[in-house]
Amino acid sequence: MAIAPFKLAISLGNWDSGHSISSKGASHTCCNPLISRNPWIYCFRSSRSLSIQKRVGVFCEAVTESKGAGAGLAANFGQDRLSKVPISNIRNFCIIAHIDHGKSTLADKLLQLTGTVDKRDMKEQFLDNMDLERERGITIKLQVSRSLAACEGALLVVDASQGVEAQTLANVYLALENNLEIIPVLNKIDLPGAESNRVIQEIEEIIGLDCRGAIQCSAKEGVGITEILDAIVTRIPPPQDTAAMPFRALIFDSYYDPYRGVIVYFRVTDGTIRKGDRIYFMASKKEYYADEIGVLSPGQMQVDKLYAGEVGYLAASIRSVADARVGDTITHFGRRADKSLPGYEEATPMVFCGLFPVDADQFGELRDALEKLQLNDAALNFEPETSSAMGFGFRCGFLGLLHMEIVQERLEREYNLKLITTAPSVVYRVNCVNGDTVECSNPSALSDPGKRKSIEEPYVKIEMITPKDYIGSLMELAQDRRGLFKEMKFITENRASIVYELPLAEMVGDFFDQLKSKSKGYASMEYSFVGYRESELIKLDIQINGELVEPLATIVHRDKAYAVGRALTQKLKELIPRHMFKVPIQACIGAKVIASESLSAIRKDVLSKCYGGDITRKKKLLRKQAEGKKRMKSIGRVEVPQEAFMAVLRLEKEVI
After folding, report:
1. Packing angle between helix 561-575 and helix 642-655, nearest 10 degrees?
2. CA-CA distance, 613 to 583, in Å (whole number)?
3. In angstroms, what is the C-alpha Rg of the chain?
4. The pLDDT of residue 628
5. How far are the Cα atoms of 300, 502, 541, 556, 596 from residue 564, in angstroms, in the given order?
6. I need a labelling partner for 552 at 20 to 30 A (CA). Which of 48, 73, 79, 565 fits?
């Protein structure tokens, strides 16, 4: 899913349907766009959530159709990109599109058509910086709502061959809540399977948008791009002129520069900001001096002043991203605004897992790598953790599954670390008998049954959009994951929306993979947190030779405890090597054993030399061997190889 806010400035008059501009009696044609100080801001959002945004500016200069006009524009190229643009000519907008619906291709075409990026510098997915973004076809984003709040309009891009997807719906509703003007755009109309009429009907019936003005385009072929630019200018309103009010700006992104500190990207909502102003962050309550402010077109370019409606960046020698969090409000220190901009929320980790280096000598490198990632990602939390099986590592908290996957891959790729990842878990609320409520994300930290009154777990509302042929399979999947059915409706004749509420713990494993498998890749999903609910949860322990193995402990629902315990004990029996004595492997709830397997001992044939004689001689040898095995078991230790732990952790992700 993608959301990309842009800013567009048109320098003269009004751009009518014929793309002509009249000013002072002269007829002008908008033909030679130049880069300006008004940046486009391009960003991405998935259901699961994290943030990196890119910006680029567009300036459409109206010129007369006279000989030599192009040469004049080229001469003033550098000055025009920093020129002040009237607020009535600014358009802040975003792109809302599902993954692989053509968001990046459309952005590239807009950059090419407007001349924002030189041809020699142009490349595919120009606004995606990380390799992960290019490989996955996504752009990573932390808070979609803050990006939407920085815009007045949105392009709703829908694949004409696939139709509306679940994640598209969720973000369109956010855009409607922010009162954005939405322009429907049907992309990929050049494909043989394109069904424009069906998709238009879907948009009207599901979202309720009037699609009589929907634009049909092919970003790959460059069809309809001019019509999109025309609609942006004519249908999206300009920002309000509030330059006279006390300064307020909305932070929608930030990153850490090793030389200049935190670089903040913001939208000026009210007032103005000048270079050198003393500024105040209203949520973090920090104050700094704006040493550098500027715009991005597409690189950073310094300016002396930014006005209401404009988007820019600032550098103020900020040492921590936590001091300039996404959604915070910037104001002047001396003339503070009465209240901050609405919508700010602290990023709260929802998914936790343990990260351990395969090589124990890399523990220090892992710590340094996490600290560096945290400089750019204030939502990443971690603390040291020790495991008897895997040594020293860290317990890390993430916003969601995508956030977790991205951090893991960046650690392995950018810092050359080989990691062991434990099964993801969620944050449980434990209500104690003494009236206290504590949060627990690690099964080993769960209090004893006698000290806790109940356990609450987070629930999410999930919406699955699927062809009607797979409704039964997906309902069965949700039911198996303790889902509570809420509603089902047919959005078209052949597509249905299924809504369930289910525990987040049931989704952090392979739920999405199973969804795609059961629907043959045609279904999509979107989920949102709805709150905590009390559930019958228990701690499932694993004992090997009578000793608890803490790294394998899990928190599961009582109804699933036997199945999970049986699967874990059977897998451990396959993976642990045999010893000279019998090794019991047990899954326990407290002192009660609910599943058990045993490894038979490696035995020497003590009767091999007995060719005959009295049976008592054989019994004596067998009794002597049994006594030795008993002594060996009482003092012996079972060494569980690391490969066994890794295999069981992979199994936990599948069965829990």
Report:
1. 150
2. 34
3. 30
4. 64
5. 54, 19, 11, 8, 12
6. 48
How many helical (H) and strand (E) elements, i.e. helices and strands, does the chain have? 15, 34
One-letter amino acid identity for 493?
E
Query: Can you tell me the distance from the alpha carbon of 471 to that of 240, in angstroms, rounded to the nearest whole number?
Result: 47
Which among 431, 449, 388 is positioned nearest to 440, based on CA atoms? 431
pLDDT, tens only, 543-572: 888 888 777 788 889 988 898 889 888 888
State the CB neighbour count (10 A cutoff) for residue 153: 21
pTM as predicted: 0.70
Tokens 């590592």 label which residue? 393
pLDDT > 90 in the chain, percent: 21
Helical residues (DSSP H) of 150-246, grouped into ranges: 166-177, 196-202, 225-235
DSSP readout, 400-412? SHHHHHHHHHHHH
Rounded distance between C-alpha atoms, residue 484 and residue 503, angstroms: 9
Q: Are 50 and 347 within 8 A, CB to CB?
A: no
Q: What is the pLDDT of residues 614-645, one digit of tens each?
A: 777 777 766 776 766 555 444 445 566 666 66
Cα–Cα dist 248/240, whole Å: 13
Helix-helix angle 401-414:363-376, to 10 degrees = 120
In angstroms, the CA 107 to CA 401 distance is 27
Quote the tokens at residue 433. Answer: 């008998």
Phi/psi region, residue 584 (left: phi>0; alpha: psi -120 to 50; beta: rest), is: beta
DSSP string for 95-115: EEE-TTSSHHHHHHHHHHHTT
Q: Which residue has the tokens 């500024």?
A: 279
Instruction: For residue 501, give the H/E element and its range.
Output: strand 495-503
Who wins on pLDDT, 579 or 512? 512
CA atoms of 219 and 236, how far apart (whole Å): 21
Cβ contact 582:601 at 8 Å: yes
Confidence band for 56, pLDDT divided at 50, 70 and 90: very low
Please give the pLDDT value at position 133.
57
| Single-letter amino acid code for the residue at 128 | D
SS3 79: helix
Strands (E), 43-188: 54-64, 90-97, 153-159, 181-187
Buried b (16+ CB within 10 A) or exposed e, 374-393: bbbbbbbbbeebebebbbeb
- CA–CA distance from 191 to each of 72, 196, 220 (Å)? 41, 11, 10
**What is the model's pLDDT at position 38?**
33
* CA–CA dist 545, 601 (Å, integer): 12
DSSP letter (8 states) at residue 203: I
Between CA 244 and CA 277 the distance in angstroms is 16
User: Which of 458, 449, 397, 452 is CA-nearest to residue 430?
Assistant: 452
